[in-house]
Amino acid sequence: MADLLPTFPYTIQVLMILTAGVILLRLSGKRSIAQLTVPEAVLMIAIGTLMIQPVASKSVWVAIYGGFMLVVGMVSLSYLQIVFPRLRKWIYGVPSVLVTNGQIDVAEMKRAKMTIDQLEMRLRQLQIGNIADVKMAVLEPSGYLSVVQTEAKKAAQKEDIQNVLNKLEQLEQNIRTLQRKK
C-alpha cells in the first residue's frame, strides 16, 4: 500500500513530518509541557520518536499513521477515565497531600519520592518561605504543587482592602461627628 502513496522530496517530507507532529500534539489536547501527566508525556515522546523515523528513511505515511494511532489511544484513555473514574488513579495517578496545617506527611512524601528539600524549594518558588504558613500542599498528578496558605498569610483581596477602606471612612465620619459635638 505504501507504494501507492506519492513520494516527496526530502525537504517536503521534513516539513510534512513537522506539520503532522504539531497537528498530532495539538489533537492530544495539552498546551503546556509542564502540565503533562505521565501517560501524556509518554505519548509526546512516542510521537516524537515516530515522527523522526522518516528522516532515517522510513515511510512518512507510516510515521503519520503511527502518530495518529497514538493520539487516538491517548484520547481513548481520556474517555475511559471519564466513563470509568476508578481507572483514573491507574492511568493518570492521584494527588498527594504533602502538607496539612503546616505539618509534613512524611509517608506521603516517600510515596511521592520527594525530599523535604525539594518540597521547600517548590514552596520558595511560590513565594512561601515557611512550611508553617501552609494550610495544605498537594502534589498534583501533573507534578504541579498546589498550595493553600493559612488565612494569616493569604494575600489581601480587593474585597478585603475595600472593607478596610470602608471602615476607615466610617471611623473618619465618627471622629468628625465627635469633633462637632464638642
Structure description:
With 182 residues, the protein is of the alpha+beta class. It folds into two domains: 2-89; 96-152, bsu07140 like domains (CRO Repressor). The chain has seven helices and four strands. It has a four-stranded antiparallel beta sheet with strand order 2-1-3-4. Helix 1 runs parallel beside helix 3 (60-83) and helix 2 packs antiparallel against helix 3 (60-83). The radius of gyration is 27 Å and the shape is elongated. The mean pLDDT is 79.
Summary, kept brief:
The chain is α+β, with helices and mostly antiparallel strands and 182 residues long. The protein has 7 helices and 4 strands.
Report how far the terminal alpha carbons are from each other: 101 Å
Count the E strands: 4
The number of helical elements comes to 7
Assembly state: single chain
Could you estimate the helical fraction of the residues in percent?
A: 55-70%
Could you give a short account of the major beta sheet? 4 strands, antiparallel
**Which strand-content bin applies to the residues?**
5-15%
Class by SSE composition: alpha+beta
Question: Unreliable segments (pLDDT under 50, ≥5 consecutive)?
Answer: none
Number of domains: 2
Radius of gyration: 27 Å
